[in-house]
Amino acid sequence: MSTDSAPVAQEPEIRPTHAPPPGLAALFLAFARMSLAGFGGVLVFARHAIVDQHRWMTADEFNETFALCHFLPGPNIVNLSMVFGSRLRGIAGGVAAFTGLLLPPTLIMMVLAIIYARFGDVEVLRRILAGISCAAVGLLIAVVFRMMTPLLKRMDVVVMILMLGVFTAIGVFRWPLQAVLLIAIPLSIAVTYVMRRKAAA
Amino acid sequence: MSSENPIWALISTFGLMSLFAVGGAAAAIPEMHRIAVEVHHWMTDKQFADAYAIAQLSPGPNVLIVTLIGYAVAGVPGALAATLAMCLPTALLAYYVSRLLNRPSQSRWPALIQAALVPLSIGLMAASALILAQSTDRTIAAVLLTAMVAVIASVSRVNPLWLLLAGGLLGFAGIV
């Protein structure tokens, strides 16, 4: 990501743009705060807190860390908390950030689950939830549409076929995720590799 | 299947699923639905859609829909087991990979793999939208509300929370 074009004497210990690394409690609290502020996605809040507010990482370092978490499976922001915390404070820091990110919202979720189990059949709540569900699906469609736009602009037929294939196999035929991905991932990597070779040639 | 310990079923289900969640939580929704509703009958289609809505409405990572699924299966221990099973294995994997890649490598593979995964995760998220829409959009009004929110969220930068609350209000008013 970052290229060292200028021949600067790099001393990794002294990074003037950085605040000193936080303690475990500070990590826990920072991630708890991000998590509770993050309605419908924590990432924006995480970037703001880590890069702008606390200056624990530069924007480039954050992007690099996020890119790594993005290409690995699992919930990205959760992976990010573990990787980020461990880069600052070792495995204990990773656990502190991970716990801070997950513990408060998980507790909230449990309270909501208990309320739902008890009052989920109440007519008023049913109607409210039905309305929220519709809006939530609408939001998801908007996200999908936004992500698709660059692909549609490139009019990349092979990529479109891959996307449609996964959509049909999982959404329409309801095939198991593992089986579909064990075929789709190697295929997509091979196609991407060949296309990049062609582009480079 | 029903004879096995539900906590263990949750841990094995979500632990395995997390390793195949390319593109995060929204991409894993179809598989969660398949397993929770169709395979194990842990919840009804409607309850699953409700769980998705509740997870969207509350703060924190969207992946926490698994907390609700876990609770439906085995109460508070189930909720904790499902959450940790979905979050911890991949977080540890990320930790080890980040240590391996601590030296900025010149390898093109991470970027290439990421580019290769993009169309797959979009396909998965589109499948999520389809499956959730099938269980929520049962009336004309519901379809219209979903379409309206989709358009507004696509063309404007309005905070998603307001749109969810507006949906809830319309539901409360009995319009949807």
Global Rg of chain B: 18 Å
Number of strands of chain A: 0
State the helical fraction of chain B.
Answer: over 70%
- Element order of chain A: H for helix, E for strand: HHHHHHH
- How would you name the oligomeric state of the polypeptide chains in this document? heterodimer
Number of helices of chain B: 7
Report the sheet with the most strands of chain A, covering strand number, pairing sense and barrel closure: none
Low-confidence stretches of chain B: none
**Uncertain stretches of chain A:** 1-15
Structural class determined from secondary elements of chain A:
mainly alpha
Q: Give the CA-based shape of chain B.
A: globular
Mean pLDDT of chain B: 92
Structural class of chain B: mainly alpha
What is the topological layout?
The complex is a heterodimer of chains A (201) and B (176).
Chain A lengths: L23 H14 L5 H11 L5 H13 L4 H44 L3 H32 L2 H16 L4 H24 L1
Helix pairs in contact in A: 1-4, 3-4, 6-7
Chain B lengths: L5 H13 L6 H15 L5 H13 L7 H36 L8 H28 L3 H16 L4 H13 L4
GO molecular function, one term (chain B): chromate transmembrane transporter activity
Membrane topology (chain B): Multi-pass membrane protein
Keywords (chain B): Cell membrane, Membrane, Transmembrane, Transmembrane helix
Describe the protein's architecture and organization.
Chain A is mostly helical and 201 residues long. Helices cover 77% and strands 0% of the residues of chain A. Chain A contains 7 helices and no strands. The N terminus of chain A is likely disordered. By secondary structure, chain B is mainly α. In chain B, 76% of the residues lie in helices and 0% in strands. The longest helix of chain B is centred in the middle third of the chain and has 36 residues. Chain B is globular, with a radius of gyration of 18 Å. The interface between A and B is large, with 96 and 106 residues. Chain A: It is found in: Cell membrane. Chain A: Belongs to the chromate ion transporter (CHR) (TC 2.A.51) family. Chain A: Keywords: Cell membrane, Membrane, Transmembrane, Transmembrane helix.
